Amino acid sequence: MPESEIALFSEQYWDRATEVAARLREQGPVHRAVMPNGLPVWVVTRYQDARAALTDPRLCKDADRLNEIMRGKLAAAGASTELLSIFSKHMLMADPPDHTRLRRLLAREFTARRVELLRPRVAEITAELLDALPAGEPVDLVERFAFPLPVTVISELLGIPLPDRAQFRHWTADFVQERSELSLPASRAIVEYLTGLIAAKRAEPGEDLLSALTIASEDGDKLAERELLATAILLLIAGHETTANLIANGALYLVQRPELWRELAQRPESVPPVVEELLRVDGPVRMSTSRFTSEPVDIGGTTVPEGEVVLVAITSANHDSDRFDRAAELDPGRGSGHLSFGHGIHYCLGAPLARLEGEIALGQLVRRFSPAELLVPAEQVRRRHSAIMNGIEALPLRLQAAGQEVPVAGTV
Hints:
By secondary structure, the protein is an alpha+beta fold. It has helices spanning 17-27, 47-53, 63-76, 98-107, 112-117, 119-131, 141-146, 148-158, 165-175, 180-203, 209-213, 225-255, 258-266, 271-281, 314-317, 351-368, and strands at residues 30-34, 40-44, 59-60, 138-140, 291-293, 297-299, 302-304, 309-312, 373-374, 396-398. The strands form three sheets. It has a five-stranded mixed β-sheet. The two termini are 37 Å apart. Its EC number is 1.14.-.-.
């Protein structure tokens, strides 16, 4: 099996993941690796294979069977068999017909019309956060803007009380880390909190999404207690971690390209196609969530045996030069085709909301401020140690009001 000079998920991997992925694509279509918790996995790296894997019914998502396989492999490796709460029975961890039913119950709350109705509130929250950013002083855009915006949006949607939201930010940041001493306690805390919140919503329903999910649909179907908790966890994690990464990664890209920053500020209509390409060039998701093989599966000429855990390398596939000409370059005229929201029946239900938040956030940022000064060399911006999420730990900038230019470090 081909080996990279830097192993997948090793300590050196995170900040050089794009470089590692490029070598892996050259060497083969699928690679064996070991997750930091000791779980052996297979990683699909090329676009065509990745796209096919995302729709292959032999690559299954059923939470019960997946948990059984993962715990067996962890036990065989002498590792802890405790799994994160995200590996529970929600629509992302289910196959048809369970997936069909679970997605239908949630889809009624995520129609295009309902998402568009959120635009004024998202714009208002964005403006409030930007108003609070200091001009001329160092500021971490991740801490002060990229995360607070989607956290506020998803918290308002779910009906999470205002005093609890800061704690959720810390829990979810630890939850996605590949360090079990952080992720497992955070997972337990989230389960405990949401269990109590669901009980409170059931006793006194409000106008929020979590309350709505406790109520039966028009045909009398409703989420079981286990399904409701799992869905709440999914919405909380996926509902802001991905969007926060989109905003932070996008801002990092723009701050290194002041000419593009200025163009977006002068031509607001160019923001949506640029955001679409940012989703491909430095998207918010590094790997898909886990699947398992229900039988031997051929991937690009390599046979993955039955009962193996498979991850699809989304950011690697999005940089595959066999699919995208000049793949490393941002081309707003390229259109979609990226896999950042997945593909097939598990295509991200929240994609319209993520696009809406990304476009509003980056659009307001470039109009409000002149091209920002990056306060560290770009190569010193650290990536978070998360197999699933592709995000940065911090983005230290100095901002000036629009029209007041500052030198921009690390421009290209």
